[in-house]
Amino acid sequence: MKSKKANIPVNIFFILFSMCFVVPFILIISASITDEQTLLANGYKLIPSKISFEAYKYVMKSPGQLLNSYKVTIIYSLLATVLSMIVMTMMAYPLSRANYKYKKPVTFFIIFTMLFSGGLIPTYILMTRYLHLQDNIWVYILPNLANAFHIIVIRSFFQGLPPSLVESAKIDGARELQVFYKIVLPLSKPVIATVSLLNLLARWNDWNTALIYIRSKNLYSLQFLLQQILREVQFIKDMAESSPVAGININLSNLPSETIRFAMCIVAAGPMLIIFPFFQKYFAKGLTVGAVKE
């Protein structure tokens, strides 16, 4: 009975702490469905005073382009995440083995690339002139297949696995690939799920690649398309306010310049909110790995 009473303050603390994350998201949803003029006049409220879906109508004014950007983003995000995990786990596994002869120089090379890069201009020349990836969906996938920090994280997790498992498999005649696929990977679901989600989020939120390398609208990523819509709204508003044309009256009362920002957040974050619960159990398991000693 005493233990239950002692847990009450802890539970209250975590409820309040959780509200710090839930309330801002509710506020974003509320602002996205609030009338533009009401939002500017009354500010942000958890319960909208006047509901309007003009922001969503403006974001979805070209549903074909929006759905195509969704499709492109989903395809390259999933494909890039899968290929990245294959590459990074296969790089991390030999680095986790004590008997790998080139362990130190390869690790140094990986860490060096994490600290130094060629820069934007050499990268652009490489991608366009030599690899011919401009206006190609593979430009979203190939350049960042390996992340140095993630490789180090995966390698550290592999090193924490019991060496006796690998040794017993070796005694039974298993080869390195068999040990890797049948023993190491199944035991590494927490780190693989965590790094996969981080990679997926990075790919999903990438708009800079489309800005630099993509010219065809059929290959626009979702984030870049939303940026284009936002810039278009801001440009129209700035032009109408700063340089009015004589004899032409432009009504900006229905132009959702503020609420559209929040609508874009919901449109962009929606799929990730659906995917996250599937990874949550692996995060919880990852927190307790190694906590129980035999």
TrEMBL record:
SUPFAM superfamilies (UniProt xref): MetI-like (SSF161098)
Keyword Cytoplasm: no
Gene Ontology CC annotation, any one: plasma membrane
Domain ABC transmembrane type-1: 70-261
InterPro entries in UniProt: MetI-like (IPR000515), MetI-like_sf (IPR035906)
Pfam families noted in UniProt: BPD_transp_1
Localisation per UniProt entry: Cell membrane
Main location: membrane
Topology in the lipid bilayer: Multi-pass membrane protein
Residue ranges of the TM segments: 12-33, 74-94, 106-125, 137-158, 179-202, 260-279
Protein keywords: Cell membrane, Membrane, Transmembrane, Transmembrane helix, Transport
Keyword check for Cytoplasm: no
Protein's GO biological process: transmembrane transport
Record family assignment: Belongs to the binding-protein-dependent transport system permease family.
Stated name of the protein: Putative aldouronate transport system permease protein
